[in-house]
Write a structure and sequence with these properties.
Layout (H helix, E strand, L loop, with lengths): L2 E6 L7 H16 L3 E6 L5 H12 L5 H25 L4 E4 L6 E3 L8 E4 L2 H8 L3 E5 L2 E4 L5 E3 L5 H11 L4 E6 L20 E3 H9 L7 H10 L3 E5 L7 E4 L2 H7 L12 E5 L2 E10 L4 H11 L7 E3 L8 E9 L3 H10 L1 H4 L3 E5 L2 E7 L9 H11 L6 E5 L2 E7 L3 H11 L17
Helix pairs in contact: 1-3, 2-3, 5-7, 6-7, 9-10, 12-13
The structure holds adenosine-5'-diphosphate (ADP), aspartic acid and magnesium ion.
Length: 428
């Protein structure tokens, strides 16, 4: 008897109708002879609404209380889904993250999983129940407090449970039919990808394609969990994220994986750019600056150091970081200004990052030229550039980001004939 973990995102459980639809789907899976563990997200945009509410009661929020607040969103969905399953005559029990044995470190808002002990989940499914788990949350043994894994973290809960339970597959149900060559909300002619390597999916997720949480892809790769991303609004086959070359062959039934040069274009509006102006151009200053920012618990993404202005002995260092970490990083820099000796700090949230991803670009020298040509033809000015072996990323102004994504997508002949279906969600 196989074990399937099914994760339903916020748009799939946005209202009572949605919850009943998901209940039907879960019970269908169970009736087909599988044991089913379900992970749910908060309903619709309710996590954003809770964040808005918190901002209204206080301009600065305590991280512990924020996790108490946000974890409530997933608890609402899990209980309602259990009730909806009872309503159609099947048995189900819901569990919070801590009841499901999701143990994390004590860092609120971006906790990392350190152990998964799903005893209660096993007991429930052995008894024939559907086990429903609240996504995106866990508990720290150190502080005995509830933690959350970071935005989009329910995907990671699902994979962590799938790995701990040795599930046959982890299905991620969302509001589009799978992973596309670009976000279908921005590029309607984007095409669904049938299979993608975890290496490429990691770069897509790291570059801002929020269809999958980055840590979920890392976790699935590490533990060899096959991921199937698909829509809860259709029965269409979705996208398989292949953890290893062996699984590639198993899933493809002997057919070799077709390897296009480019797998897709990702974009990200969630980062801001910081420029530290007038940094003394002597050894050790970059280390000091990044030490200060790291102390503020921030993930730095792109970094550029300009050539020092002739004769000034000073240079500028720019980097990008998540907008949510901006205030803390700026405060830490301001505090250290005299010690480090830089002149000022500039901060810009109106930027966007565009990335082109494809394992085939490794062996294809014309890719960069075609990429920069497409951006130049579209009149897009480039602010920063970074590359990996299978990715090129640029930072542009936020206003031209969508045009830039469409231009690059077209330049690499990724446009399909059909219009991609977006079933629900607000894209928030
Ligand atoms: P959920 O609520 O189910 O977790 P998300 O909103 O987190 O859903 O992720 C699904 C959304 O991801 C889609 O509606 C789509 O707008 C966006 N997206 C971004 N990049 C891609 C991509 N390459 N393929 C498919 N969807 C993408
Ligand atoms: N509800 C959380 C969020 O909106 C977690 C998730 O949906 O994965 O980020
Ligand atoms: Mg998501």
């Amino acid at each position: 008897m196989s074990l399937i973990v099914q994760k339903f995102g916020g748009s799939s459980v946005a209202d009572a109708e949605g919850i009943k639809r998901v209940a039907q789907r879960v019970v269908e899976t169970q009736s087909a002879g599988h044991r089913v563990v379900v992970v749910v997200s908060a309903m619709g945009d309710s996590t954003d609404e809770l964040l808005d509410l918190a901002a209204q009661v206080s301009p600065t929020s305590d991280a512990r209380e924020m996790d108490m607040l946000l974890s409530a969103g997933e608890r609402i969905s899990m209980a309602l889904l259990a009730m909806a399953i009872h309503g159609i005559g099947a048995s189900a029990q819901s569990f919070t993250g801590s009841q499901a044995g999701m143990i994390t470190d004590a860092i609120h808002g971006k906790a990392r999983i350190i152990d998964v002990s799903p005893h209660r989940i096993l007991t429930a499914i052995e008894k024939g129940d559907v086990a429903i788990v609240a996504g995106f949350q866990g508990m720290s043994r150190e502080s005995n407090d509830i933690t959350t894994l970071g935005r989009g973290g329910s995907d990671t809960t699902a994979v962590a449970l799938a790995a701990a339970l040795d599930a046959d597959v982890c299905e991620i149900y969302t509001d589009v039919d799978g992973v596309y060559t670009a976000d279908p909300r921005v590029v309607p002619s984007a095409q669904k990808i049938d299979t993608i390597s975890s290496e490429e999916m990691l770069e897509m997720a790291a570059s801002g394609a929020k269809i999958l949480h980055l840590r979920c892809v890392e976790y699935a790769r590490r533990f060899g969990v096959p991921l199937h991303v698909r829509s809860s609004f259709s029965h269409n086959e979705g996208t398989w994220v292949l953890p290893s070359p062996d699984d590639q062959i198993k899933i493809q039934e002997g057919e070799p994986l077709e390897q296009p040069i480019i797998s897709g274009v990702a974009h990200d509006r969630s980062e801001a750019k910081v420029t530290v102006v007038g940094v003394p151009d002597i050894p050790g200053k970059a280390a000091e600056i990044f030490g200060i920012v790291a102390g503020a618990n921030t993930n730095i993404d792109m970094i550029v150091q300009n050539a020092s202005t002739l004769g000034s002995g000073r240079t500028d260092i720019s980097f990008t970081l998540p907008i949510v970490d901006g205030a803390e990083a700026l405060a830490a820099l301001a505090e250290a200004q005299d010690r480090v000796g830089f002149e000022t700090v500039e901060y810009n949230e109106k930027i966007g990052k565009l990335s082109l991803i494809g394992a085939g670009m490794r062996s294809n020298p014309g890719v960069s030229y075609r990429f920069f040509r497409a951006l130049s033809d579209a009149g897009v000015n480039i602010d920063m550039i970074s590359t990996s072996e299978i990715r090129i990323s640029v930072v542009t102004g936020a206003d031209l980001l969508d045009d830039a994504v469409r231009a690059v997508h077209a330049a690499f002949e990724l446009d399909g004939d059909a219009t991609a279906t977006v079933y629900a969600g607000t894209g928030r």
